[in-house]
Amino acid sequence: MAYEISEQKKVGIGLVGFGILFSFLGIILFFDRGLLALGNILWLAGVALLLGWRSTLQLFTDRRNYKGSVSFLLGMFLIFVRWPIAVDFGHLLRYFSIRFRYLDGCCSISYTDS
Predict the structure, then answer these.
(1) pTM
(2) Which residue spans traverse the membrane (predicted)?
(3) Closest Cα partner for 16 from 56, 38, 37, 47?
(4) If residue 83 lies in a helix (H) or strand (E), which one and from where to where?
(5) Count of structural domains, the chain
(6) With contact defined as beta carbons under 8 Å apart, do 2 and 14 qualify?
(7) Do 70 and 100 contact (CB within 8 A), yes or no?
(8) Does one domain contain both 66 and 96?
(9) Cα(51)–Cα(18) distance, rounded to whole angstroms?
(10) What residue spans of the chain are helical by DSSP H?
């Protein structure tokens, strides 16, 4: 095999997959807060294992990603406090953060000469 995946990255891929699965099940089961919170935790832990702890911290503290980071963390907080109205608002904030964090970055790729 040309490229081997380390055990840590395999676990990270599994955690991201289970995080997406639990989030999807939480949405299908009428915004079940327990499944959504578990999905958030698993997804975040999986991303940290895939990228590494330092890269994950840089992803959330980068100045260009502050809108997405703030809305993602605020959305997670609102889901964890389990207020009925805030849970729906928390989901909207999380999906809003995906738009700022990932979709803005993929359309503005710049190349630098080094």
Answers:
(1) 0.70
(2) 12-31, 37-53, 65-85
(3) 47
(4) none
(5) 2
(6) no
(7) no
(8) yes
(9) 17
(10) 7-28, 33-51, 53-61, 66-81, 84-98, 104-107
Q: Are residue 50 and residue 19 in the same domain, yes or no?
A: yes
CB 51 within 8 A of CB 38: no
87 band by pLDDT with thresholds 50, 70 and 90: low
- Tokens standing for residue 92: 């909207």
Residues 47-79 have pLDDT tens digits of: 899 989 898 888 888 888 777 777 777 777 877
- The token pair at 27 is 């949405």
Q: Which of 83, 75, 87, 82 is nearest to 43 (CA)?
A: 75
Closest to 81 (Cα-Cα) out of 21, 33, 12, 26? 33
Amino acid at 34: G
110's tokens: 């710049």
Percent of the chain, pLDDT > 90? 20
Token readout for 45 is 């832990």
Range of the domain at 47: 9-54
